[in-house]
Structures are given as structure tokens and as C-alpha cells.
Amino acid sequence: MSRAIVIGGASGIGLATVDAFVDAGVRVIVADRDTERAEQVAAARDGVRAVHMDVTDENSVAATFADIGDFDTVVNCAGLSNPGALTELELDAWRNTVDICLTGTFLVIKHAGRRISDGGSITCIASLNGRQPGAGMGAYCASKAGVLMLVEVAALELADRRVRVNAVSPGLVMTPLTEGIGFVPGLTEDYLDNTPLGRSGEPAEIADTIVFLASDKARWITGAAFDVNGGAHLKRYPDV
Ligand code: NAD
């Protein structure tokens, strides 16, 4: 890996991934729909530059990959969750989650896959929720399950150019995405009760796995999904 683009790199797990690549001596492009934050991230780090990308907009995704020059490493961390029981969830909220988490992953794979250097890697962030249902999280769970399957299909389709495609499925990691759950009484405790290692994860712990998967040490790994969750996949997922 020599040149990485981290999508959703302005915050949380993506930001930790930017830092982990910088530590590994990799030149990084941070791409985010929050251009201001992406530019702040780039300005504070050597060898990092910022670009605007909205993964729900095909023109934006295509133009970014066309404009950035050569790259061999792609990480897609863009995501969000709109909670709501299936009988209550507004169609717009469903579409927004699916557009960002699932369709966004498709668009990133489509346009990165056309231009990435032979032998490169694409890593997509799925979730524990891609394999464990959570009541009140139907749009997110369905999207992340879709991400896991898209990664497997992409691994098959891009293997002829030795491009590896993998997923990382985090458990609970405290980031701006999840900080709101602290306001639901008992929810954080419920998560932790269901995590054998008994704590939430740090963004850097997800980033370490992402950097490993992008590295030559993972050269024979493709179409795989890595659970990075303190063992939470071994237990039931708590209701939201
Ligand atoms: P975060 O909110 O801190 O960061 C998400 C980033 O994605 C933000 O910078 C945001 O601006 C960007 N983004 C959102 N929509 C975008 C779009 N349409 N185009 C481009 N960028 C966009 O969240 P996080 O917790 O770091 O989550 C990163 C990924 O990890 C997400 O896919 C999330 O679903 C997944 N995940 C997180 C957790 C967790 O507990 N934090 C658990 C499992 C999976």
C-alpha cells in the first residue's frame, strides 16, 4: 500500500484509519461529504489531502476516483443509522440509511474497482448488525448485511486483477455516530453485558485491522469479514 483513500475519514473510525495509515507511512486522501472537517484533518497531518465525496451521489464518487491519480488502497467508512421500528420507520429514513450504507458501498466499489491499481485492496466497514438483528435498526441491519454480500461478490469479480476486497465488522465503538446511545437508559450497559471482553472498542482498534487488511501481510485474504467487537458476535444483540 502506498496511496490510500479513506472515505468518511473526517470522523470516528475513518479518522483513526487516516492516522493509522499516516503512522504506517502511507500517503492518504481523506474523502468525506463534510468537506470542512476533511480539510481540517488534512491540514493537521503531513501527507494527507482532502477531497469532497458524497457516496450517495454517483457523479461525486466517479469524479473523485477519476481525479485523484493513482491509488492502491480504498477504505469506505461512510455510514450512519436512522433508527426506528419497521412498522414506524418513514420511507425517507429507510432510503437515507440504505443510500449511504449500501448503495454508497456499491458506488465506491464500482468506481474504485475500475481505477484501483492491480494488486490493491478495498476494505468496507460493515457492522456486527450485518449478522445480528437489532430491533429498531432494520434499515441499518439490512444495509450492513448487504455490504457483507457485496464484498464477497466484489472479491470474486476483482480477483483477476489481484484486487482484494474485505469487510470489517465493528461492535460498539464510541464515535459521533454512537454517542447518542448514552441517552437511552441502560443501553450502553446492555451492549457491554453482551460483549465478552466487557468494554466498547476504540476507533484505533478498528483502524488497526483495516490497515492490516490493506497491507501485504493480508495478501491471501479476500472476500473475508473480520469481527472486531470484543466477542459480541458470540452473544445476542440488544434491542434499541
Ligand atoms: P462517524 O459518524 O464518526 O463517521 C462517519 C463519517 O462518514 C463522517 O465523517 C460523515 O461525514 C461521513 N459520511 C456520512 N455520510 C456520508 C456520505 N454520504 N458521503 C461521504 N461521507 C459520509 O461514524 P463511525 O462510528 O466512525 O462509523 C464509521 C463506519 O463504521 C460506518 O459505516 C458505521 O456504520 C460503521 N460502524 C460503526 C460502529 C460504531 O459503534 N461506531 C459499529 C459498527 C459499524
Tell me the major beta sheet.
7 strands, parallel
Number of distinct beta strands: 7
Number of helices: 7
Q: State the helicity in percent bands.
A: 40-55%
Protein name: Short-chain dehydrogenase
GO molecular function, one term: oxidoreductase activity
Keywords: Oxidoreductase
Family: Belongs to the short-chain dehydrogenases/reductases (SDR) family.
Structure explained in plain terms:
This protein is about 40% helix and about 15% strand. The chain is α/β, with parallel strands linked by helices and about 240 residues long. A seven-stranded parallel sheet has the order 3-2-1-4-5-6-7, sandwiched between helices. The model has no long low-confidence stretch (mean pLDDT about 95). The structure holds nicotinamide-adenine-dinucleotide (NAD). The site of nicotinamide-adenine-dinucleotide has 29 residues, from helix 1 and helix 4.
